[in-house]
Amino acid sequence: MSLVARKRNVLPGFGPTLGFTLFYLGVIVLLPLSALFLKSAGLGWSQFWKIVTEPRVVASYKLTFGASLIAALINAVFGLMVAWTLVRYRFPGKKVIDALVDLPFALPTAVSGIALTAIYAPNGWIGQYLEPLGIKVAFTPLGITIALIFVGLPFVVRTLQPAIAELEKEHEEAAASLGATRFHAFTRVILPAILPALLTGFAMAFARALGEYGSVVFIAGNMPMKTEITSLLIVTKLEQYDYPGATAIATVMLMASFVLLLTINMLQYWAGHRHQGVA
Amino acid sequence: MSIEVKHISKTFGNFTALHDVSLRVNDGELVALLGPSGSGKTTLLRIIAGLEVADPNPASEILFDDSSVTERPVGQRRVGFVFQHYALFRHMTVFENIAFGLRVRPRALRPSKAEIRDRVHQLLKLVQLENFGGRYPSQLSGGQRQRVALARALAVEPKVLLLDEPFGALDAKVRQGLRDWLRKLHDEIHLTSVLVTHDQEEALEVADRIVVMNQGRIEQDGTPEHVFHQPANPFVMEFLGQVNVFQGRVRRGQALLGEMAIEYPNYEADQEREAMVYMRPHELDIKRSRNGVASLAARVVRVNPAGSVAKVNLRAGDGQNIYVDLPLERLQELQLAHGDEVYVYPKNARVFVPDYVI
User: Fold this and answer.
1) SS3 per residue for B50-80
2) Is residue A178 less than 8 Å (CB to CB) from chain B?
3) 3-class DSSP assignment, residue B300
4) What digits encode the pLDDT tens for the residues B159-170?
5) Tens of pLDDT along B18-48?
6) pTM given for the model
7) Nearest Cβ partner of B83 from A170, A180, A184?
8) In Å, how far is A79's CA from the nearest CA of chain B?
9) For residue B78, which of A13, A200, B24, B159 is within the disulfide window of CB 3.0 to 4.6 Å?
């Protein structure tokens, strides 16, 4: 007989739901990931290190992380503006524009990749005007960044919309009545309030960009050392039946992404909870 | 600083929130705008603050100390505005909240860091929250939050203080405490203040003057004593406290309520007219026996002695409910019980003859 009474909760279901969550995450997320680790572990450390530090691979890391970061930052700024406009103002066609935001979600990435390439290629709609100015978009890192901005936009807009809608008008009125300019009201009152959502949107857009493949491969041109993203490199290795090599690079990507996302999550937690610190 | 608004109207779509309202608040006065929800009192306050713009009308004007501020935006009117739900900045500490108005000033007008710190500490002392500067709003009770909101509004040294239902979201006991404290504060700093409330008790207790509003119009404007004892019309009478309303008739200087007759010298004509007779519960007395004509037979329904006065609920012969507040000693004398037949005597009554409506 146990003397320790089990703590009872009026809301039932903690056991089964936690069990299901762990099982589900295990089967759907962790199982394939651990297979990845196992496969690359077969390589041995020195072999692994040699593959993942090959100059061509390192160049692809730099490109992938750099372009993804820039794309996510640009999305954070302009996505905020789009979300703000969609929440705060009423104008004809608002619903249509709101629906348009989701298109990059729904569109097969290859379709968007081909469309972007067609537009930005030297003889494309926009590319033909940029070419004489000396701006090359297609088959350059700039083109890759544009493709990543395209696929990442909905993440920022959709996470920010509810946060902006929840902002209380009174806070802005209070700031105004205390003599704050619109700029001060935005930077000191509005921005801190939506910062957690902005960080979440940024993190999601960034994560999506890191793993993006379809929309990038067409516009990138895929020149080794110049416009070759990491996910393409992995596919290339697979096509050459170099499974250990592919998994080794994938493992590095996975670790890096995990660390970055964890950092952003912690930042976001801090932004959301610092004002609820203990008394 | 005095406040004057002239001919202010405001419509929201089809809804008229304010209907050609004019009002003057003298320097150093604490005026309460009192009315039910939808009466336009908050809209009027927000228009004074500059948070809302009145309908365009060449005659409408807002004056602070007799100079027009109609075109000035809220940030330049030097008003302290206190919101019903505090509107404290959640990500800032109490200190930062209060300092906000000083820190966002243009560099040339901004006090030094030390000055800001001194000013904030002074204000924290004023609102009795000296040791709470480092806390976040979420760590404070409702009453404390509202005091922080007040300190924040006062930090910018406003010329007028505007309070929008400041105690509306608080529980009764805290509300009473803050009410007394606000009155004391006002007596100390003498800042021209306008308080919006739907709580007549609050208005009667705190304000120097009460402006009773209904459906976008001012019904009555006067001292608490005046509006309570000499209500201008049935609306004010009914809004300021509980009241018994009787349907009656007037003729030849008398108001008749069934068998009861009340003096009413304002109407001497022979022709009989409909009238409404209003009596507050404390203006009625109960007797065991009939004596004279000014009484109404009723049956005791419920006696509730839990309070500073006993609340007695009676029912007249025609089924009308009558509420009487009796002093507890009087209740002791009468020994009322459920079902007793008694007589109700008005000590005071007000008669309103409705205008002819065709």
Assistant:
1) CCCCCCCCCCCEEEECCEECCCCCHHHCCEE
2) yes
3) strand
4) 999 999 998 878
5) 999 999 999 999 999 999 998 999 999 999 9
6) 0.81
7) A170
8) 23
9) B159
